[in-house]
Structures are given as C-alpha cells and as structure tokens.
Amino acid sequence: MIPTSDQLEEIARLREGSLAEVPFAPLLLAHALRQSSLVLEVRRRQVWKRILIEDGVPVDCRSNLAHETLGRFMVAEGKLGEEDFTACLSRSAARGVPFGEILIEHGLVTAADLFRILQQNLAKKLLDLFTWNEGELRWLDEAPASDSSLKVKVPQLILTGVSRFAPQEEVDMSVAPLVGKKLVLHPRPPFPFDDLRLSRHQSQIAEALRPPGRRMGELAELTQLPVDEITRVLYALSILGVVRTSDTLPKDLTATGSFQRPAVAPPPPPAAATVPVPAVAPADPDLERRRNEIMQAYLSYRRQDAFDLLGAPEDGTPALFEEKFLDFARRFAPWTLEAGDLAEKARDLFLTGARAFAELADSEQRNTLLFRRRTLREERAKKPTASFAIKTDLLDSESQFKKGRALMDAGKHREAVMLLEFAADCDPQNSLYAAELAYCRFLVTSANASRALKELNETLRRDPKCGLAAYYAGEIERQVGNTAEAEEHLRRAIKLMSPDRRPIEALKALSTERKR
Known about the structure:
By secondary structure, the protein is an alpha+beta fold. It has 4 domains: 5-151, no CATH class; 158-264, no CATH class; 304-376, DnaJ domain (Helix Hairpins, Orthogonal Bundle), CATH 1.10.287; 397-515, Serine Threonine Protein Phosphatase 5, Tetratricopeptide repeat, CATH 1.25.40.10. It has helices spanning 5-13, 24-34, 70-76, 82-95, 99-105, 111-128, 154-165, 168-175, 200-208, 216-223, 227-239, 285-300, 306-310, 318-331, 341-361, 363-382, 397-409, 413-426, 431-444, 449-462, 467-479, 483-497, 502-515, and strands at residues 16-18, 38-44, 47-54, 57-63, 136-140, 183-185, 197-198, 243-245, 263-264. Strands 1-5-2-3-4 form a 5-stranded antiparallel β-sheet, covered by helices on one side. It has a two-stranded antiparallel sheet with strand order 6-8. The longest helix has 21 residues, at 341-361.
C-alpha cells in the first residue's frame, strides 16, 4: 500500500493489527511522522520481535532468535572468532557485565567499531521485517524505556528494506495504481532528500522524475533499468512521500518547485581507467583516542545515573561534584570537534553531564537518587548468585539448518523441508538457507519446479553473489529441459562458486544431454 496522510495517521493509532493489512514500511513511517514512543511487538509463527521506538526512531530490537544476539552476529560477520565469543559470553554472564563492554575490555574491538557493529545488527534485525507479508502486530503496555544509544534513520531503512526485501506481490499490487500516471518528485517531502543516500540506479530514477515528471513506461525507456527494479524504487519513494502522481501534488506547490537533491553513492571508476591514488594523511592518534573515548562513553551513558556518569562518589561534596563535572565537560566539549556525527554524540554527552551535575547539586534530587541506589543494591543482594551456565530459550536457526541439511543428504527430503523452512523463517536474509530450501522443495517433487525457481531467482535478486542459488536454478532448469536458462545459471554459478566443481559438472552433463 502507498498510504495517504490520513491513512498514516490511522495506522499510527492502531494498537493491534496484521502485517497482511499494514506492511512494515507504512507502519514504521506512520510512527516516525507522529514521533511515537512505544514498544511494538511483531509475531509470525514461532518468531517474535519487540521494537523500541523513541520519538519515532527505532533504537532497539529484541527477539527470540539466537543469531540476532550481538555475539552470534559478530561471529557470522567474521568480526569475532568462535573461541573469543564463547570466552567473552562466559565472562559477561559471570560478572553481569554487557557483552560489548567485555569485548572492549579485552581489546577485541574499539568502542567506535562496537558502535558500528551494533548499528548494523539493529538494522539487520529490522530489515527482516520487510520480508514478512504476514504476522500479527500490537503495542505492548510496558513503558518504552531503554538504555540503547542507537538510532536508525527511518527513511533510509524504508528505502533499503522495500527496494531489497519487500515481497514482489506487495510491490506489484502497490504500484499498479501508478501505471499510466505522470509521477513527479515532491518539492517538499515529509523527509528531506539529504536523509537519503541513493544508489546509482536509484539516483537515475529520482533524477528522471524531476518536474515535470514522467510516466512509468517513460522511466523504463529513459533509464534502461529492469521494470522490477524501477517499481521497487518507486514503491519505496512513494511510501516516503518523495514521489507523487502529478495530479495529487498540493496546489500551492508549482511543478517547478525547488527541492534538495538526495545524496548519491559515487559510482566505481571504470575498470580500464588509471585512477591516481591520493596521498593518505596519517591518522591523528589524539583524534582516534578521543573518538574511542567519546564512543565508549556514548555506548553506556543511557544506563548510568548521575554518580556513575560523572564518576562521583556518593559521599562527595558540592565542590567535588563541580570538579567532576568540569572534568567531564572538558573531555566531551562538542565545540572542540569538527561538525559531524562525533560532535553530535559529544553534544549529547555534554548535555547529559550538565543534567547529571544539576541533579547532584540539588540536595533533594541527590537524596532521592541515593535512596534509589540503596534500594537497587538491596534487591541485588537478595538475588541468588548467578550460575556460570548460560541457559537460553532462543530459537537457533543454524542448528535446525544443519539438521535439515543432514536429512537432505540422506535423501529424506520431506523431513528436511520442515527444518529448512524453520531456519529460513527465522533468518529470511540468509541466502544459503533460502537456496537449500528451494532446491529441497524441488527434490520432494518436480511439481515444485516453478515455485523453487521463483524462490531461487528472488534469492539471486536479493543477493547476486549467491552462487548456490544460481547452481540450483541451473540444475532445476536442466532437469525440466530449459537448456538455455540452465546454461546461463550454471555459467554464473561457476564464476561465483569457484573452486566448487558442482556447477562445472552440471554444465558438462548439460552439454552431453544436448548432443544426444
């Protein structure tokens, strides 16, 4: 759906509903525009996710999926070894210290790197939801409180999520009303264009829609891009209110109204060109030290009270509190940094430090805080000592996938499909899971060939580097007699899967079959 402003307002007021009726992109946009603060729970079969939204911005996402935990995400991304993961997880559980802090403490990541990894992990958790075309959603009554310092740029998340992961049926149904109509960029969209960073192809489409605009057929002719790619970009930009049909543009906005240009990711240089390598300025060690100091403080400041933030003792004097604050202010003064993301984080820390000092300087507020700290200590003292054993009821897609793959190798395809479906359901962005599931469906019965090919082609669209999907698509096309399509997929698989010889052997078999 491409929602109107009235529909977005109605969506923002929904306390429960279905993703079949309200896809995730309009849902996210509605709360961003309303600047809602809430806990949103989304469930699909055995999987649940709880998204904390503050002032319209997702800052945290919890789920019952093992691979979405920080440690497992880092292992999967090659940013942490299995041994280090296990050791740090044990230390974290034994000491009650966040896993990320243990990583920094042992020098496995810098604070700046950890912040980037946490941001990537949060974005990946949220992007999964763009693949869901079913599921239930509801507001939770619990207070939306979190110690997360993360923030996701909603417009960019929607653009990426829709253009890469939205189900094709949803895209086709939503853009159908736009066919034949003149489309134009909105001169003053709800989100400024500089909130978006477009790919080269997305930028081509956006530029082609500058006033007076174009129809969808004209866009395809002008850009020479695949229709499916154009419709996905149009759907995303239409949801964001960046693209409108010319007949729905507000009357007070002229067709030549001014608007910002979106940021464009620079294209790679031509392969044959000789590109001069610019001299790289040596890294400033003092700036790196400050960056990590700021990032480490920024990662933890929301879960610290005034005493912890300023490093002040509970029995400190007003003079000591002032001294601690002045030291804190010198360390995180934003005006000592160039304008940018780091300066913004330093500004947040500086202002939080000022509020903490005001709290400690006021005797009534300080006594209230001291009482709260004593109560928390007493509650912790009453709890039994935590066991070093790490127990979890998280869903483990990787273990289910391995069991499914073993059944597949044993020829038990029907049983394998159930486990592979579970794994793909839990981790819909995992191209390996999707490819194995699609091929296993075909092995159950060749009547599933059409469905399996559709799923494999969709996997290749999302992940063009998935050689396994190309190989399985080639094998299915070969077995159903589509030799030209089979050869195209297998040659692609050979390039992507080297040194794996399976696609080479399949191509040889195809050549032999052709000669018969």
